[in-house]
Amino acid sequence: MVQKENVPDVVRNQRSEKMGGSYKIHINFYMLPKPKGRKTYIWEIITLDRTHLGYIKFDGAWRQFICEPADDTKWSASCFDQISAFLKEQSTEWRNSIKRRSK
After folding, report:
1. CA nearest 14: which of 26, 31, 22?
2. Which tens digit of pLDDT belongs to each residue from 31-63?
3. Fewest CB atoms within 10 Å of the CB: 20, 56, 78, 86?
4. How far apart are CA 103 and CA 81, in angstroms?
C-alpha cells in the first residue's frame, strides 16, 4: 500500500447512519479532479490515516460505477459495506442525471 502524505482533506465521507450506524467508518472517498474529456469523476479510496486503497470510477461497459482496489490491500466486511453503499449512491446519481438530461 502507498502512504499518501499530501492528500488534501477528504471531500466525501460516508455517513454511518446511511449504512445502519452500527460500525465505525474506516475509509473515505476523495474526489479527484475530472480529467479532460471524462464525463464522470474518479474517487480515490483512502483510509483515515490516508493510505491509498484504490479507486471508484465509472465503467461504460458495466454502465455503473465500479471499485478498482489497489494491489496488496486488505478489506473488512464493513469496508465492503461502505464501498457497496457508495457504488450504489454514485450509480443512482449518474442514472438520475441521465434521466434529467433526456427530458
Report:
1. 26
2. 999 989 998 999 999 998 889 999 999 999 999
3. 20
4. 33
Is residue 9 assigned to a domain? no
Which amino acid type is present at position 99? K
Stated pTM of the model = 0.73
CA 62 to chain centre: 16
Angle at 28 between CA 70 and CA 3, to 5 degrees: 50
How many structural domains compose the chain?
1
**Per-residue burial over 13-48, b = 16 or more CB atoms within 10 Å of its CB, e = otherwise:** ebeeeebeeeeeeebbbbeeeeeeeeebbbbbbbbe
Q: Which residues span the domain enclosing 67?
A: 16-102
